[in-house]
Structures are given as C-alpha cells and as structure tokens.
Amino acid sequence: SSMGFSGDRAVYVPLPKAKQINSNANPSYTITVMVPNNDIMDNVIGESTALFRNIRKVKIGETNNFEITKSDAIAQTLFENLKFVAIGGVAIGIITLLGASIGLMNIMLVSVTERTREIGIRKAIGANPTVIRRQFLIEAVVICLMGGVLGIFLGMVLGNIISLAMGGAFIIPWLFIILGFILCVVVGIGSGYYPAKKASKLDPVEALRYE
Length: 211
Fold this sequence. Notes:
Elements lengths: L14 H7 L19 H15 L15 H44 L1 H9 L4 H37 L8 H27 L3 H6 L2
Helix pairs in contact: 3-5, 3-6, 5-6
C-alpha cells in the first residue's frame, strides 16, 4: 500500500465487462505505459499525443481533451510535499535544540556549584578568570560534540539503511556533518557562557569555604 493505493482493493476485469458494470455514460480512463529507455520518453509522449488526438477526433488548433502525466511530474509533486516535511522537521529540531540548550546550561550551573571548592583552589594557585571561563566553555562544547557525534552517526546509519532498502547508494553527507559540528560548537558556547562566567567571578576565599 502506497500513495493512497492498495493492491488489496484493486479488481482487474476485461474492458467490455467494465463498461457494462460502470453506470457512468462518459467514464474516464487511465492508461499506464512504461518505456524501456528514459531517453525515448519524449518521443513516446509525442507519439501517444498524436494517437490520442486521432482516436478522440481532436481537430487541428483545438486543445487536447486528455492529459499525459509523466512519472517525473509525480516525483516532482512528492518533492514539493517533502519541502513541508523538511520545514516541519527543522521547526521541531529548533524547539528540541532550544530545550537541550537550556538543559545543558542547567547541567553546567550544577557543575559549577558542585566544583566551587575546586574553582577556589585553582584560583588560589594562580588561575585567572579567563582560564576558569575557558575551562567550563570547553567542557560545554565537548558535551555538545559528544551528543553531536552520536546523533550524526545514528542519522547516517538510519538514512543509509533507508537508502539501500530503496536501491540507492551509500551516502556520506559531508556538508551536513560539518554544519552539525559547527552547530554543536555554537550551542556549547551559548549554553556554557553564563555558567563559565559565573565560575570565573567566584571569590577564591569564599569558594574555598564552600562545603
């Protein structure tokens, strides 16, 4: 079953019998033709058009009273519908990414709180705010990259399984992989900046007293 058509609901009968069963005096017919080679499709369409104009007695100068639909036109319609699916997927991805960013920020804030004494010790032995801030930013970016690598791997595996099942080739989307890594770095910096800034501003004496 696909594209609204189910083989379980199809009945094949001879054309004369179909005309007897059909109560419509002026029925519409769909004739499906497959060409052996895609290069001769235009020639076959031209031959079919001439044949049908003759059968349906369409005079010169009159428009066709029938329609010829190519398979690539159906594919084009499917691709246009897939654009809306892609837009929906991007919207869901943005919402999910926003939630993940907030979650990562909370994780980093908890990490700063739990490691307050560590931050105090590091500052006491000479670490300046820039070093502390860089440390927590790097940690946030690494966490994002770990999730990004896992997501890219699962996406490639699932996508190529579908592609191979449909008779396609193995695909490595390098552009989307690079964009994914860039996005992970941006999200990591954006989510980790506030916790890192908070950690860098801790007073070393107060941090050492923290239990």
